[in-house]
């Protein structure tokens, strides 16, 4: 191939088309536990996170919730992946070897939110949320019906592989995926670029700006106990009985069970078997959807 601007433009368009095709073929899964929040600056402050919205009887004036009470902030981060194409390969039309790499660019770009969201969920026992406590904790603050601060738990601890029960029916999800700039395909491929002049390399890459964080811990139960019917029962009861400030029920249900590969067998038996415990009728059959996530242990 003759090295000129027109041919290099054709090469760029071909690579980008390959990238977009592979990108579109991937269905990311992070959306079952994370809500996407557009970002327009370096960081976003989530002051509304200490106010779980609930209706009340209108007596007297409206009670206006202050949505700037929390200083929980998620700072955007930069991510990239870059390859170089040797000028000799372009001249010799030896470009087929790069097609799988560009396809992998597309796949990894589309699934990258998964690589952020699922490890964050697994790190919920050590990563803090808006109230200053780890997201999965036994000491989250809440006001009881008398207006006094008490605590609630959204975990029962343990040391096994983690599993999670959460309510995936709401607009607000337990995890926030903050999107400042989506993944894009970029290039330094002009014959006059320093990388071409000095190293005879055309450079192609992908990059994005984003980050992840936690929203309401009330929406999820995390456990490292063995996934048994008794542990699952505890998780469902705790979620269903969850109350917000002043003792108001939040109407949360355990609709999605999330596990890693090591808990898949136990989860499938729990949610699909007719019997448990050696012959007892299984009351938990069909009570939640199952999501098996390879990014979890």
TrEMBL record:
Residues 8-296 form the Bacteriophage Mu GpT domain. Keywords: Plasmid. Pfam families: Mu-like_gpT. InterPro entries: Phage_Mu_GpT. It comes from the Bacteria. This is Bacteriophage Mu GpT domain-containing protein. It comes from Azospirillum argentinense.
């Amino acid at each position: 191939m003759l090295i000129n601007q027109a041919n290099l433009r054709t090469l760029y368009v071909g690579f980008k088309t390959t990238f977009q095709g592979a990108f579109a073929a991937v269905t990311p899964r992070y959306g079952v536990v994370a809500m996407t929040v557009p970002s327009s600056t370096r960081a976003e402050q989530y002051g509304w996170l200490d106010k779980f919205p609930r209706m009340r009887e209108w007596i007297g004036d409206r009670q206006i919730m202050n949505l700037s009470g929390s200083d929980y902030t998620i700072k955007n981060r930069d991510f990239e992946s870059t390859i170089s194409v040797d000028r000799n390969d372009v001249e010799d039309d030896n470009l087929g070897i790069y097609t799988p790499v560009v396809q992998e660019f597309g796949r990894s770009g589309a699934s990258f939110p998964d690589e952020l969201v699922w490890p964050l969920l697994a790190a919920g026992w050590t990563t803090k949320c808006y109230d200053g406590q780890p997201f999965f904790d036994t000491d989250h603050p809440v006001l009881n019906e008398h207006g006094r601060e008490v605590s609630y738990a959204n975990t029962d601890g343990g040391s096994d592989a983690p599993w999670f029960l959460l309510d995936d029916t709401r607009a607000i999800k337990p995890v926030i995926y903050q999107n400042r700039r989506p993944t894009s395909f970029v290039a330094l491929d002009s014959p006059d670029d320093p990388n071409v002049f000095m190293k005879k390399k055309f450079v192609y890459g992908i990059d994005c700006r984003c980050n992840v964080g936690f929203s309401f811990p009330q929406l999820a139960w995390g456990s490292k106990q063995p996934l048994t019917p008794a542990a699952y029962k505890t998780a469902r009861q705790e979620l269903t009985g969850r109350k917000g400030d002043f003792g108001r029920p939040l109407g949360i249900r355990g609709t999605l069970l999330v596990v890693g590969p090591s808990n898949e067998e136990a989860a499938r038996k729990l949610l699909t078997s007719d019997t448990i415990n050696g012959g007892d009728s299984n009351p938990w059959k069909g009570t939640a959807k199952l999501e098996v996530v390879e990014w979890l242990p």
